[in-house]
Amino acid sequence: MRAEDIPDFKDLPSVPGMPQGCAWGIWDKNGERDHVGSLNLLTPEIVLEAKREIQTGVSVSLKWATTSFTSIRRAAANGMAFREEWSKRGGIVGRAVLIDYASWAEQKGIQYSAISRHCISENDLDDIAKDQGVHFRPGDILIVRSGWVKWYNNATASERIKGAKDGHEFIGVKGTESSIEWLWNHHFAAIAGDAIAF
Fold it and tell me: 20 to 30 A Cα–Cα from 11, which one of 2, 58, 106, 123?
């Protein structure tokens, strides 16, 4: 399914027993359940378009103990099937865009703690993208740098336990219907961040 064929958030068909915006069934085909959700947006055409932006050829790993990485259609309920299906597809290859909230907030004089309920709004994401010269495209992999990893790396062992293990408040993208609608309507293939919660 091409991004232009996906309904906007407000037009997603209702799924019995689920809240508005549930995307279950959107990518099902021929009566078979889909297991990779919005990663289906990483079509050969999207991947070929992404290769035009490669400048150094150096790849980087997103594997860090706390990095949050997910397809927009959450596959947590069946994680093993999700990993198998994404492996069958050849892994995740596409254009990633880094939205650096931590640097932007520092430039704007915004002070916050990474272990507080500090919310990054969709307006912040738009403003940062504009400042960075980033133009979102369907199938992009959105990565948000919140500054959580920097906090963690600079924290003492006891601060890590108090803030990460025992703590219950973290910086992240605002969890509202409007932010979910913003994410969906941009048709990101996947989203990731450096915080415990996206």
Answer: 123
